[in-house]
């Protein structure tokens, strides 16, 4: 087997489509909470426009800073519903993708792009209403010279992402949940949404006190036993 073949893993298990559809109904914040407050990418990775949302399964890509050769390869291999999750090493000196590549992604049914790197043609992408999350923009174009990897674990925004993991993003940012874990979180997410709605309703009737606060302050040593705010 050549090194090129080893660097590209074409076959990996994905989150079933019905689980993706169910999980996509929740906010990333809800899923991060029920996942133990884990899986949220660093806040430097943001949508190009706050209204942008995405949900799907990760196809992971590792590139050299400023080079997008392997992203082109990943687009050719991706399946509808995949999200390109690109480890661009946080580089902002050149854009990894622009209008042409995003148009191809949209045409192929790729659910969106998350990259620890820069994009360009942001106004065009906004007009396309195609969900792109990046560390920012840069008008400089990429090179297409360097090898990389597809389908291998990557680190994006400080989070390890495996091919096939569940990815979801909105104005708050991006959350990744392990493929094997996402289905078990759906009942917990449903309960959390219900609990939060009940708490908000109670606050609106005047019940604004945080019942846990005094105990937490005592445990932290801020209040002595018997002392209150």
UniProtKB/TrEMBL annotation:
Cofactor section: a divalent metal cation
Family matches, as SUPFAM superfamilies: RraA-like (SSF89562)
Recorded superkingdom: Bacteria
This protein's name: Putative 4-hydroxy-4-methyl-2-oxoglutarate aldolase
Species: Rhodoferax ferrireducens
